[in-house]
Amino acid sequence: xxxxxxxxxxxxxxxxxxxxxxxxxxxxxxxxxxxxxxxxxxxxxxxxxxxxxxxxxxxxxxxxxxxxxxxxxxxxxxxxxxxxxxxxxxxxxxxxxxxxxxxxxxxxxxxxxxxxxxxxxxxxxxxxxxxxxxxxxxxxxxxxxxxxxxxxxxxxxxxxxxxxxxxxxxxxxxxxxxxxxxxxxxxxxxxxxxxxxxxxxxxxxxxxxxxxxxxxxxxxxxxxxxxxxxxxxxxxxxxxxxxxxxxxxxxxxxxxxxxxxxxxxxxxxxxxxxxxxxxxxxxxxxxxxxxxxxxxxxxxxxxxxxxxxxxxxxxxxxxxxxxxxxxxxxxxxxxxxxxxxxxxxxxxxxxxxxxxxxxxxxxxxxxxxxxxxxxxxxxxxxxxxx
Length: 386
Description:
The protein is α/β, with parallel strands linked by helices and 386 residues long. It is built from 16 helices and 13 strands. Helix content is 39%, strand content 20%. The longest helix has 24 residues, at 68-91.
């Protein structure tokens, strides 16, 4: 029988954090050593790996529409895949490490924040019971639902971890994660002042443009090389930045329902494909992602905070053209990837879920009400025993 009290009382806990992002590249696994809980928590990354999805599974996860039977099947299949990834991280852990827990983000197939008038909810798949059965240790999952139950958006979830890891008494920094969706966390000295929200599309738009323009022959713009060769199409850029989401006041979150390539880009690209080059169209979408982040800062963050550093993580941190656009849009701000702070850019979210799982076990609230709009701080996640 699972003894949560004994797990809480351990001096240190070894946790595998799993992350599957909206870009559908694969599953990240971070094995993290955690001491304590709350503001004084200490973390060390022991190992990290990314396991790409098989192409057939990736295409199913990218499908713009899924019926109930497909979601049901994918829930178990993805659970089996995540279980294999977690088991590999456990079995290859450095000598002397016995993993205590798996914490998984699941894979989001639908995210409808409360601002949607037609109803709201959030759904992640990747069955936790399967992971617990295969790995033989407890699994924490379904972090978003409790924040939503408390009246929040259910996202973003990483601001708590950002503040725990990066807050200092003498400075304010911003953490920017560019995954499928881009989100930013402002980390001031005081937790009560933390600000965070989804800025809008990230790699989901850039990768989607590449797939649509090449009929699936290419999946992404490696290092932003195509964008670097292109010239921005001003009319197309204006169209991309005219989305109503960008003018909504935080707290706010978004997802594939608004910025999936089929919704945000397909028709717009089809009507311009014959008039402009592949490179020009990719350059424009990349610039739109950068400008949406820059404008979000100028509209919602700059009036309240002076940012000294912008720390970038996620797959977008590898896009040199995107980073260059951001550096141009943040004059006077030091822009660095999280690798400079001993957190690999690809590992940040998997690390975050490991730490969120730790807080679940310890009974420590880990949402940020002022960021999600929740009525109160709550303990996130559901625990599945082995």
